[in-house]
Amino acid sequence: MSSRIPPRSGTPSERTAERTHSRRASLVVLCAGALMTILDGNIVTVAMPAIQNDLGFSGPGLAWVVNAYLIPFGGLLLLAGRLGDLVGRRRMFTSGLVVFTVASALCGVATGQGALVAARALQGVGGAMTSAVVLGMLVRLFPEPRELARAIAVFSAVGAAGGALGTFLGGALTQALGWHWIFLINVPIGAVAWISALRVIEPDRGAGLRAGADYPGSALVTGALMLTVYTIVGAGERSAGSTLVLAAAPVTLFAAFALRQTRAERPLIRPGLLHSRLLTGANAVQMLMVAAMFGFQYIGALYIQRVLGFGELLTGTAFLPAPVLIGVLMLGLSARTIGRFGAHRVLLAGLSLITAGMALLSRLPADGSYAVDVLPAMLLLSAGFAAAMPAVTGLAMSGAREEDAGLASGLFNTTQVVGGSLGLAVLTTLAADRTDGLLAAGVRLVPATTDGYRLAFTVGTGIAAAALLLAVPALRPGPAAPAGPGTDGESAQDRAGTRA
């Protein structure tokens, strides 16, 4: 099967219609590929008890079903994004689809602990290759600000919906067909996405490996990121002292990487890239925002199950209003709202709603109900995320030049993984410690558990408020530090949507 795009012919209006159709088809394929990796990060959580019973995992060993995916996924995003700039983003995307699909099949047929953990690690590699370059491909496909804002809104809606739908689908597939099918379902989807990508996405010529193949720097930053994710996801199982000692390793590697970039002839990260206020500010804001949202998704599910008494499938169903509202708002209003009010104002409004939603959750009662105590906060958080995520994504990508779009995309996805993992580790540890302390003092289980969750949501409120306070000066409209020659901060923000 040939992947070459036939030459265009016909009238100018016909060629314009053909280009529009091709771009939309490409957007669908990119969203489908990204959706698989997003779903897989969440779909496995509900199936964990079934996997444990079937394969005989111990409690600590079971965590590696998740960690084996997260560590290579989070560690390789930056490198995969840069390699996409060098070898071609479509090539990186389609190669990632192949790796992810094969790994999913291996997960689905795994009959032992080691086989499943190894296949999950391979899934993480494929997921990083696929996810790292998607935003960079969107920037190339949709060069006009209004079109790019719409494309980012669609992609963000798919990502947000995928995260929430993972919990529901995990429960439904595990209950109906068995845990193997949460992985096997990816095989036909991945195959169709791969074939479609070769047919509808035009090939792009990368800069070539010689333009930026800093192999020592790549090894340093990849090792640093993997150790960072490993340190974070395992923090709850270690003492604070052990975690601090382990954290020294990635800090050392990051320092060595920074030194390497100042001396390398072809650095992995062009030094001027991180001088962009939009790029660095948007990534910092996103890290805090995602930390709060991941805390809600995980701890909220625990509250619904352990305090309200919902089962697995009913818990997944309880989260369905979130992706529905996010999808409706992102697809129907996000791009137009950003075009009218500007990305910065929309981001601040979204972060305000997220902070308010987390504040409501910090008052959860031990005898609460879903409709009164959970659903209103969930709707506030969903509306806030629907506003904030496309805005912060557009701001981050507008802070990079086209030749760095893959690297900027990988960096944005990396901060998302690190922020989510860090927020989850901190908030769950705080909740568990508070609950254990109250149980030791003689408090009954449900009130003690609820108080632990309230503490976590109180801290989550502070994290969301910190994101809001940071976004006010860091991403305000106006001239920003240039990302490199020919890149102007103000025009970059215009491209993010302030003049769309």
UniProtKB/TrEMBL annotation:
A Pfam family annotated for this UniProt entry: MFS_1
Principal cellular location given in the protein's record: membrane
Major facilitator superfamily (MFS) profile domain residues: 26-479
Single GO MF annotation: transmembrane transporter activity
Keywords: Antibiotic resistance, Cell membrane, Membrane, Transmembrane, Transmembrane helix, Transport
Single GO BP term: response to antibiotic
Residues passing through the membrane, by range: 25-50, 62-80, 92-111, 117-139, 151-173, 179-201, 213-233, 239-259, 280-301, 313-334, 346-365, 377-398, 410-432, 452-472
Domain of life (superkingdom): Bacteria
Region (Disordered): 1-20, 480-500
InterPro entries: MFS (IPR011701), MFS_dom (IPR020846), MFS_trans_sf (IPR036259)
Transport keyword on record: yes
Membrane protein topology class: Multi-pass membrane protein
Subcellular compartments: Cell membrane
Family annotation (PROSITE patterns): MFS
One cellular component term from this protein's GO annotations in UniProt: plasma membrane
Protein name as catalogued: MFS transporter
